[in-house]
Amino acid sequence: MDRTKPTVQQDSVLRHVVMFKFKETATQDDIRKVQEAFSALPSKIPQIASYEWGTNNSPEGLDKGFTHVFFLTFDSEADRGVYLPHPDHKAFGEILGPHLEDVLVLDYWSRKD
């Protein structure tokens, strides 16, 4: 499989999907603080074109313990490249780290609506 992708795809946006599985020791207050910290990133990092998040409510039972999904959109790989090492993103990681059991991240190109 060819993993080489262009940095910009005309008529497309880059989706960045992040799923969290929290430690059993994470309290509801800990999780709320993580949610609030992640939700603050779009106001701090202008390269984030759009953002949404939610909690799992699938009845299928296939979540493997992942409860939260965060969905970011970027206009280019260059914009994602600014986001990933951004100091505010790194600071968010410090808030998340003590409560995180596992994370799953997938990025993909999607046609603009």
UniProtKB/TrEMBL annotation:
It holds the Pfam family Dabb. PROSITE patterns: S_R_A_B_BARREL. Residues 14-108 form the Stress-response A/B barrel domain. SUPFAM superfamilies: Dimeric alpha+beta barrel. Homodimer. This is Dabb family protein. The lineage of its organism: Bacteria, Pseudomonadati, Bacteroidota, Flavobacteriia, Flavobacteriales.
